[in-house]
């Protein structure tokens, strides 16, 4: 997962966001999160899913300036 996607997920975990108010790069992050079932979208509002919450509780497997990695097997995915 890209670091920007992870940061967007953390932000959505704190407070749902309105897609119409975000920058195009964040909108791309949101589309990835929804496709990965880490967030859900109803109309213009994006909220975190239980799977997204579970991911935020997990310790990243590795972290680079661009990518955050998680152990999908350890998460039971």
Description:
It contains 3 helices and 5 strands, in the order αβαββαββ. The protein has helices at 3-14, 24-35, 50-57; strands at residues 17-18, 39-42, 45-48, 62-63, 68-69. The strands form 2 sheets. The protein has a 3-stranded antiparallel β-sheet with strand order 1-3-2. A hairpin with a 4-residue loop joins β4 (62-63) and β5. α1 (3-14) packs across α2. The longest helix has 12 residues, at 3-14. The radius of gyration is 12 Å and the shape is globular.
Summarize the structure.
With 77 residues, this protein is of the alpha+beta class.
The proportion of residues in beta strands is: 15-25%
Trace the largest sheet across and list its strands: 1-3-2
- Radius of gyration over all CA atoms, rounded: 12 Å
Number of helices: 3
Output the keywords:
single chain, 77 residues, alpha+beta, 3-stranded antiparallel sheet, two-stranded antiparallel sheet, 3 helices, 18% strand
Please specify the SSE layout and strand pairing.
Elements: H1 3-14, E1 17-18, H2 24-35, E2 39-42, E3 45-48, H3 50-57, E4 62-63, E5 68-69
Antiparallel strand pairs: 1-3, 2-3, 4-5
Helix pairs in contact: 1-2
